[in-house]
Amino acid sequence: MSFFGKLKNRLMKSSSKLDEGLDAIVQDGGEDAASEVEAATNQSPPPSPPASQAPPASDRPPELAKSAASPQELSHAPHPAEPPKAEPAKPQGGLLGRLLGRQAESAPVARRVLDDDMLEQLEELLIASDMGVDTALRVTANIAEGRFGKRLSVIEIKQALAAEIARVMDPVARPLPLYSKKPQVVLVVGVNGSGKTTTIGKLASQFKAAGKKVVIAAGDTFRAAAVEQLQVWGERAGVPVLTAPEGSDPASLAFDAMTKAQAEGADLLLIDTAGRLQNRADLMEELSKIVRVIRKKDPDAPHNTLLVLDATTGQNALSQVETFRKLADVTGLVMTKLDGTARGGVLVALADKFGLPIHAIGVGEQIDDLAPFDPEEFAAALTGLAVE
Ligand SMILES: Nc1nc2c(ncn2[C@@H]2O[C@H](COP(=O)(O)OP(=O)(O)OP(=O)(O)O)[C@@H](O)[C@H]2O)c(=O)[nH]1
Fold it and tell me: Domain named SRP54-type proteins GTP-binding: which ranges (predicted)?
């Protein structure tokens, strides 16, 4: 199954929440437009990205190019600002109905005038989906522009919402940059349980599969279980994992790993770190010592500092970004566990508030459940617009 298919299926909780909420908002104060011949389905194509911001297909990583809608599909998609064209209803009356020349009436499509009341309900729905107050207000204000006072169907609102979400997310959708520098050092930070180890395993395996030589340093030396878990991932990926005795200095392990990676001509060195936020001063010192030590070997290292966030923590992810930006020079984000959470909206809030690159998202525990972040796919999946 394509990653888009997985994303769509696994974001069901978030999208069904928005789906149902939008349905309820339109029904509440909506009028049935039974006279309009329009297919009552939410299976419309994903909205086209805003023309000014859509990246050319050639700029996308191959994984995304594969899963994104084809140019033909996109060219058939209605512009988010325009209501979709009415499609002739298919005869549904069954054999007898057709023999008798009768057709089932096409299901009526509810519409509602976009007024202040409806905008307020929309804001509340977006806030409930973890988009945060500021972002929810901005998104609804932009949806209202050019549509205020118009009668909208659920599909039209979803298309407008998806287009707006994609517009917010587009500037932050950046795959992990790869440099010619060897080894490229990637420091991975985040609270315990956010998915650092799993993300390192997935990244290692994907880069290895792409022909890169990868070394992993199990820098959370305080948790034997974390080290063991990383070893399992390393074995799976066929990547060496450097470990140190429990309780030993992670900076010294990072130094050894850097030495090994340089000696072996590795392309990538992934360094896991501890995530104990209980004592921020200790953690800050630990992280800055790792950085100091690896800079003795390469003054530009680490080349990336990835903050791994767990989507199920919702708004808490925002405060984690604030905290870790103080502890380390965070250069990009990875959001894990987007599967099975109703809190996917937090990614929109993160993009809107911090503008940090979102390099990848995780939608499961398997090795291939990590992919570059695609704003249009995400927006379509989150709003429930996506189709196979
Ligand atoms: N459903 C789902 N689970 C995930 C995802 N990423 C990680 N997990 C699970 O989340 C749990 C914690 O992940 P870890 O990778 O151990 O997190 P960590 O940040 O390394 O945690 P510590 O080792 O405690 O520091 C594990 O059970 C993973 O299998 C994801 O994208 N989706």
Answer: 183-384
Please state which of the ranges 52-56, 217-221, 299-303 shows the lowest mean pLDDT. Answer: 52-56
The matching CATH number, chosen from 3.30.499.10, 3.40.395.10, 3.40.228.10, 3.40.50.300, for 184-383 is 3.40.50.300
Pocket of ligand 1, beta carbon within 6 A: 190, 192-198, 220, 223, 226, 229, 275, 336-337, 339, 362-365, 369
Helix (H, G, I), strand (E, B) or coil at 328: coil
Question: What radius of gyration do the chain's Cα atoms show?
Answer: 24
Q: How far apart are CA 267 and CA 183, in angstroms?
A: 5
Domain boundaries, the chain: 3-34+45-85+108-172, 184-383
Q: Tell me phi and psi for residue 184, to 5 degrees.
A: -80, 120
CB atoms within 10 A of CB 35: 7
pLDDT at 13: 61
ipTM comes to: 0.92
The string of DSSP letters for 109-140 reads -EEEE--HHHHHHHHHHHHHTT--HHHHHHHH
Take atom 7 of ligand 1 and give the residue whose Cα is closest. 195
- Chain centroid to Cα 159, Å, comes to 18
pLDDT band at 28 (very low <50, low <70, confident <90, very high): confident
In ligand 1, which atom is closest to the CA atom of 336?
A: 31
Question: For residues 349 and 324, what is the distance between their CA atoms, to the nearest angstrom?
Answer: 17
pLDDT tens digits, 101-146: 344 445 678 899 999 999 999 999 999 989 999 999 999 999 999 9
Protein residue whose Cα sits closest to atom 26 of ligand 1 = 195
Spatial separation of the C-alpha atoms in residues 344 and 338, rounded to whole Å = 6
In which region does residue 210 sit, left (phi positive, over 0), alpha (psi from -120 to 50) or beta (all else)?
Answer: alpha
| 111: nearest Cα among 34, 19, 226 | 34
pLDDT for 49 equals 41
Mutate to test the pocket of ligand 1, among 6, 203, 307, 336 (most ligand atoms within 8 A of CB): 336
Q: CA 361: distance to chain centroid?
A: 5
